[in-house]
């Protein structure tokens, strides 16, 4: 017992020791685990901090290329100083650097995009590397590295691109290669009995809509359920269509209407359809929300909530830095040739005092006696110091209208009456009244009072037609008894007549040399000529008036509208005598006919005057009309055939024609002097920028500045079957951010452009403009011009109704470099109309899949809107007959090979007053009508190869799409092909707009030990 004493104590102590050891071990384990866990937690924090740093670098890189068109290497490297501030984080590395380094020029060679929805497209690739090392207070460090490429994607690589909703619907068969992308919704359909075939990838940042047309009508009820074939693999719909599938009517990404947000639910089966069935050959983005399958928004670098893509065709405001993202994107700054026309010379480079800012008028101090120009052969030789001068078109109230001189006689049409013994039927005047003065605040021309030159004197001019001599009665008052004046002395009373300029405004033409210096050549171009014959030239040097003219501003006065210019008239003829009475006298006669244009005696020509010592007669100045034509889409608020010769002032367009073939001759040195000095290296060819702001009013909603817009937004008016302006923006449709009339997206109705339209047009003695302004609100569609042939065809066009027309652009005539490479782009703030074959022709082997012929150029047109006119187009016919019946304007087969970037109108809901036949009302016309038409193309082939790009809404030509009463056009047989040359960088036109896209290629953690 005694020996066992203390055992319990010893056991307890041993147990306590054991427990203490366990406790100590447990404590050490917990402490260690805590430390390890803390370190691991800090490592995770460091990992995510480094990851966040990489993401911020990527975001900053994208923002840099959005705010600066062409950042320098130092701009990219400067992003290294923008490390985020995070409590407790030290950035051991924070580097953003282009592959070429921070001091060497950026490496931006063309290559193919390697990842993302734009994979496979060619772009200017700028490789960039990023490295971020985040250190925590406990010494934990994580390094992350990313490689990225900034891709500058040429827009013309897309077969079809739209910044807004894109519609394929209710069209005939359409087979168009090339990628398709829209930043809005994609409406996919085709007429019930037709097939729409895609050949490449389709991406829509919005949604894919199958059940509806863009105006909300159901596809099932309105001819939109035909077969739509989409490839499931590369080249799947080519040839025998080895991997080509018809998309189901219910296989859109939404179950019904689109919109942002969509006005119907998401199709839950869409991800499988998009990514599995079609292997991502058709994807959407659902505007960046859940449910999209990967499509991205593509925009120009400067586009944001306030600056729109159409700024690329605008003149820059005074003082704008051309190196900013916006300035560097403007075609005005990319161009090597600029053609600028304004009402005020202060708006042009050099200002009012620059002699190269030439007023288009014959006034003292500014070409009072015309301009020495090129002239056709066959004229008398010139003495030393003499010249043949062409006058700018001038109107006069002393000129007779011979359109009533249609009485048949052996010698040709005469003025009535026939076989008469009395006075002639009085002729009216070709221009009976001078233009009306604009209202207060609406004068745009300088000086005040222009275009009017002189007021009518007293007595008023009269037209006296005289019989032949040797009458047996006294001649009419004002006629001599013997040797009556012939040709009729039309100009005898010019000094008593009112006169005015038919063109007016100020022109500047300038070019940039290889050193970047600008040189004005306005007078050089005008000396080449600025007038043509009754029809537009279709071959270089074929102009019958000024063979070398590049810019064409006027045409001969075809006073009776028959398409033939009569410079001789018809002498009076005795039709009966008193024979055999002696002396024999004339007892009955015909009065003859005045000539349409007056020949200048010395030149024997009605178009040029022999000028010696700087002086000439000036008689030919009244021999000209402006180049006017009727655009029924602009002129008619609704698709209605008026059934007569009436038209609206809003649709009478005044054109400046660009003779593309003669421009090429000038650039190659065949005519003029300066052409070979124009830089062609910077853009691999030439960009010609055109802006005609004549008649343009300042926008009161934009700091009272001229913005390049017509300010004619009040065009939809869905509540009025007649289309009468209502003075208010249309209500925004569900799912739409903007009103369908708000094409400049400022949430205001810009409708003040009608205030100076129609000043040169009259119905009788009543001026059209006065009646436009009498309506409330102003109505540019009413009243109608009763005789479009008489008033619309012959008179000065006021208001923002001035356009550019490209002529003589057939294959071989479009400018390209003398080594037969490069190309030519026309960029215009105004609408552009392409007349006749352009960069192609009948027999061109490309239409059968053959190779390019010599003379082919990489060509593009970038404009407010683009209308194609066939080889058969006639300005005259558009204004005669029935201007609201397309059948009066028959088209002929024509060929166009040119990329087009232009605007369109907004979609709006189908109005309840419209009939079911015109179910396209409320749409922009769809892809098949993106190229605008004004002729009857029924059964006629329209051959187009190029790229169709809609970057913005049209803000100058704002007329809505109209079909199918056929007042505007009848559809062609469309042979539309994507130009495969545009798929590679060397085949792109000069000045091609570039999208910016930042794609991440690799992303990894760096485990290599780093030393500092």
Describe this structure in words.
This protein has about 1000 residues and is of the alpha/beta class. Among the domains are: about 5-155 and about 995-1005, no CATH class; about 410-430 and about 465-485 and about 570-605, no CATH class. The chain is built from eleven helices and 46 strands. The strands form eleven sheets. Strands 5, 8, 11, 15, 16, 17, 23, 24, 33, 37, 39, 42 and 44 form a 13-stranded mixed beta sheet that branches. Strands 25, 31, 32, 36, 38 and 40 form a six-stranded mixed beta sheet that branches. Strand 34 and strand 35 (about 765) form a beta hairpin. The chain is elongated and about 185 Å long. The N and C termini lie far apart (about 75 Å).
């Amino acid at each position: 017992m005694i020996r066992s004493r203390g055992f319990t104590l010893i056991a307890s102590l041993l147990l306590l020791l054991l427990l203490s050891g366990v406790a100590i071990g447990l404590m050490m384990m917990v402490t260690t685990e805590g430390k390890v866990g803390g370190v691991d937690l800090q490592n995770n924090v460091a990992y995510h901090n480094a990851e966040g740093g990489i993401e911020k670098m990527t975001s900053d890189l994208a923002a840099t290329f959005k705010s600066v068109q062409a950042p320098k290497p130092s701009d990219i490297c400067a992003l290294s100083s923008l490390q985020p501030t995070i409590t407790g984080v030290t950035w051991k590395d924070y580097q953003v650097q282009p592959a070429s380094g921070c001091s060497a020029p950026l490496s931006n060679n063309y290559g193919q995009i390697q990842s993302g929805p734009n994979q496979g497209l060619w772009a200017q690739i700028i490789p960039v590397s990023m490295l971020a090392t985040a250190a925590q207070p406990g010494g934990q460090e994580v390094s992350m590295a990313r490689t990225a490429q900034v891709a500058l994607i040429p827009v013309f690589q897309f077969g079809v691109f739209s910044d807004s909703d894109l519609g394929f619907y209710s069209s005939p068969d359409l087979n168009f290669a090339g990628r398709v992308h829209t930043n809005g919704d994609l409406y996919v359909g085709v007429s019930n009995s037709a097939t729409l075939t895609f050949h490449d990838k389709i991406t829509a940042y919005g949604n894919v809509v199958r059940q509806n047309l863009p105006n909300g009508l159901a596809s099932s009820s309105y001819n939109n359920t035909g077969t739509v074939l989409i490839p499931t693999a590369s080249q799947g719909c080519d040839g025998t269509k080895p991997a080509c599938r018809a998309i189901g009517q219910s296989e859109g990404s939404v179950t019904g209407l689109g919109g942002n947000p969509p006005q119907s639910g998401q199709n839950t089966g869409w991800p499988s359809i998009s990514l599995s069935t079609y292997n991502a050959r058709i994807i959407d983005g659902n505007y960046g929300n859940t449910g999209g399958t990967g499509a991205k928004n593509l925009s120009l670098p400067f586009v944001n909530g306030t600056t729109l893509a159409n700024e690329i065709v605008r003149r820059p405001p005074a003082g704008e830095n051309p190196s900013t993202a916006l300035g560097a994107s403007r075609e005005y700054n990319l161009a090597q040739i600029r053609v600028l026309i304004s009402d005020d010379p202060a708006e042009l480079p050099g200002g009012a005092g620059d002699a190269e800012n030439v007023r288009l008028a014959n006034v003292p101090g500014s070409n009072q006696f015309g301009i020495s120009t090129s002239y056709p052969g066959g004229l008398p030789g010139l003495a030393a110091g003499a010249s043949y001068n062409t006058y700018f078109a001038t109107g006069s109230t002393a000129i007779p209208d011979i359109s009533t001189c249609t009485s048949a006689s052996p010698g040709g049409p005469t003025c009535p009456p026939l076989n008469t013994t009395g006075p002639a039927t009085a002729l009216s005047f070709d221009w009976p009244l001078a233009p009306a003065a604009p209202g207060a605040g609406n004068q745009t021309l300088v000086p005040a009072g222009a275009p009017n030159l002189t007021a009518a004197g007293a007595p008023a001019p009269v037209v006296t037609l005289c019989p032949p001599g040797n009458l047996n009665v006294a001649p009419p008052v004002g006629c001599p008894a013997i040797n009556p004046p012939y040709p009729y002395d039309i100009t005898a009373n010019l000094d008593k007549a009112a006169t005015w300029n038919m063109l007016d405004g100020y022109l500047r033409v300038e070019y940039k040399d290889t050193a970047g210096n600008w040189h004005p050549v306005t007078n050089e171009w005008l000396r080449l000529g600025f007038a043509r014959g009754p029809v537009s030239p279709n071959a270089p040097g074929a102009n019958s008036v000024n063979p070398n003219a590049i810019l064409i501003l006027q045409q001969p006065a075809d006073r009776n509208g028959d398409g033939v210019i009569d410079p001789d008239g018809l002498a009076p003829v005795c039709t009966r005598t008193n024979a055999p009475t002696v002396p024999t006298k004339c007892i009955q006669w015909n009065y003859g006919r005045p000539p349409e244009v007056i020949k200048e005696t010395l030149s024997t020509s009605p178009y040029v005057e022999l000028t010696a010592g700087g002086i000439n007669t000036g008689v030919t100045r009244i021999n000209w009309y402006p180049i006017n034509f009727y655009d029924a889409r602009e002129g008619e608020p609704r698709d209605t055939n008026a059934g007569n010769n009436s038209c609206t002032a809003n649709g009478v367009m005044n054109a400046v024609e660009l003779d593309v073939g003669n421009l090429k001759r000038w650039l190659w040195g065949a005519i003029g002097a300066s052409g070979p000095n124009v830089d062609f290296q910077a853009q691999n060819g030439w960009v010609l920028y055109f802006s005609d702001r004549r008649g343009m009013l300042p926008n009161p909603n934009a700091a009272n500045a001229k913005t390049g817009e017509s300010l004619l937004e009040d065009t939809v008016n869905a509540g009025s079957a007649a289309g009468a302006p209502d003075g208010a923006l249309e209500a925004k449709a569900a799912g739409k951010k903007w009103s369908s009339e708000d094409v400049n997206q400022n949430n205001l109705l810009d409708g003040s452009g009608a205030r100076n339209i129609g000043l040169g047009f009259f119905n009788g003695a009543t001026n059209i403009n006065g009646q436009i302004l009498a309506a409330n609100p102003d109505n540019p569609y009413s009243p109608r011009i009763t005789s479009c042939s008489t008033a619309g065809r012959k008179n000065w066009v006021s208001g923002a109704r001035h356009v550019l027309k490209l002529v003589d652009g057939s294959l071989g005539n479009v400018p390209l470099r003398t080594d037969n490479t490069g190309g030519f782009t026309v960029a215009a703030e105004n609408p552009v109309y392409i007349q006749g074959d352009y960069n192609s022709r009948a027999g061109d082997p490309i239409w059968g899949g053959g190779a390019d012929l010599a003379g082919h150029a990489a060509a593009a047109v970038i404009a407010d809107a683009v209308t194609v006119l066939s080889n058969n187009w006639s300005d005259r016919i558009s204004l005669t007959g029935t201007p609201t019946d397309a059948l009066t304007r028959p088209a002929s087969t024509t060929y166009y090979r040119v990329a087009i970037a232009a605007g369109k109108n907004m979609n709006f809901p189908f109005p309840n007053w419209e009939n079911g036949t015109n179910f396209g009302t409320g749409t922009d016309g769809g892809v098949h009508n993106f190229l605008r038409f004004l002729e009857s193309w029924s059964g006629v082939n329209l051959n187009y190869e190029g790229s169709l790009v809609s970057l913005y809404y049209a803000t100058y030509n704002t007329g809505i799409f109209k079909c199918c009463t056929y007042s505007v056009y009848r559809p062609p047989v469309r042979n539309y092909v994507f130009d495969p040359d545009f798929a590679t960088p060397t085949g792109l036109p000069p000045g091609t707009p570039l999208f910016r896209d930042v794609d991440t290629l690799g992303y990894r953690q760096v485990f290599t030990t780093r030393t500092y």
